[in-house]
């Protein structure tokens, strides 16, 4: 569910996309369909990765995901005219973001999914906002913790603990898989901190930033990935369709574009609500279609994680509203 976490947590992605405001306002009904598309495709990404993990390595999965996800975003950025040669001077920032928000994040999740049922991996991904908040709280002075946020973090981590159930020993969930999922979440959280400190002040178009990040990650992965045996995935129709069309083109490339559309037409706050859908979709796919054995505590864990995320978002919105009320009203209305 790559694009969800990168775009929901990065400042630049919350701005109006250049070129969108000039035309007529698109139908909100279409934006709602895009919202549902995001929830379903991001929730489906885990089963696509699981199928591919049976045939190729996690690094190879991430490489192919980046290659096929890059194409739609690159074409969109070219069409919008957001790519600029002067952006080259910020390449060092793009390189850091390509590692934190793409390469390391994707790789850690691919490793975790190889060790866990797809339903459990998808459910754990719902805790990404918790780790993002903790990274922001640790490294950004302007991020403060209050009772709702503290309660959200506590609920979310209790949910993660109920999923991992380390007290069961070797007979339970693979703790290494859980650790990889947490590592990926921490990587995304660190990317948010880096974006807030170094990327947001650059005021770059979201489409351009996304193109640079995925493109540089793709180059980096080409250098470090062992390509031996990568063709194996194309000998399994289900696996390559899921990887190329589901995970790459739709789950990465088109998902970015759909998120841009939702933010532009429904607003960033409404778009953030998509956070709640993928874990539920992943759990349903695993339980109903794949036949994963779901422990009753897993459903409790899902409620705790999503409740924790809701508490965090409520605390953030409350603080934002309080800050806005204290600021003087400027001429010209609101943004």
Give the gist of this structure.
By secondary structure, the protein is mainly α.
Shape: globular
Mean pLDDT equals 85
Largest sheet: none
Strand content: under 5%
- Which structural class fits the helix and strand makeup? mainly alpha
Percent of residues in helices = over 70%
Residue runs with pLDDT of under 50 for 5 or more positions: 1-24, 327-335
Distance between the termini: 30 Å
Total number of distinct structural domains: 1
Radius of gyration: 19 Å
Number of strand elements: 0
SSE pattern, N- to C-terminal? HHHHHHHHHHHHH
Count every helix, treating DSSP H or I runs of 4 or more residues as helices.
13
């Amino acid at each position: 569910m790559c694009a969800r976490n990168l775009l929901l947590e990065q400042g630049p992605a919350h701005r109006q996309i250049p070129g969108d405001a000039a035309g007529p306002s698109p139908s909100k009904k279409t934006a709602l369909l895009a919202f549902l598309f995001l929830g379903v495709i991001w929730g489906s990404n885990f089963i696509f990765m699981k199928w591919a993990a049976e045939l190729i390595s996690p690094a190879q999965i991430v490489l192919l995901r980046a290659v096929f996800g890059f194409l739609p975003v690159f074409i969109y950025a070219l069409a919008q005219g957001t790519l600029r040669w002067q952006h080259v001077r910020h390449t060092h920032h793009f390189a850091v973001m390509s590692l934190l928000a793409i390469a390391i994040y994707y790789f850690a999740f691919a490793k975790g999914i190889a060790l866990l049922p797809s339903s459990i991996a998808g459910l754990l991904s719902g805790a990404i906002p918790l780790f993002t908040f903790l990274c922001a709280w640790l490294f950004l002075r302007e991020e403060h913790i209050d009772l709702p946020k503290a309660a959200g973090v506590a609920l979310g981590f209790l949910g993660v603990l109920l999923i991992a159930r380390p007290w069961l020993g070797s007979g339970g969930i693979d703790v290494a898989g859980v650790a990889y999922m947490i590592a990926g979440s921490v990587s995304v959280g660190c990317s948010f901190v880096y974006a807030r400190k170094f990327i947001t002040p650059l005021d770059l178009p979201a489409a351009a930033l996304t193109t640079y990040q995925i493109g540089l990650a793709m180059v980096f992965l080409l250098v470090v990935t062992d390509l031996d045996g990568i063709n194996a995935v194309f000998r399994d129709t289900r696996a390559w369709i899921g990887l190329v069309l589901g995970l790459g083109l739709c789950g990465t490339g088109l998902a970015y574009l759909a998120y841009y559309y939702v933010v532009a037409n429904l607003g960033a706050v409404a778009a953030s609500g998509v956070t709640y859908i993928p874990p539920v979709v992943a759990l349903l796919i695993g339980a109903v279609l794949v036949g994963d054995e779901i422990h009753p505590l897993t459903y409790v864990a899902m409620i705790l994680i999503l409740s924790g995320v809701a508490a965090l978002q409520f605390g953030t919105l409350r603080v934002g509203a309080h800050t806005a009320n204290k600021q003087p009203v400027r001429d010209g209305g609101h943004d």
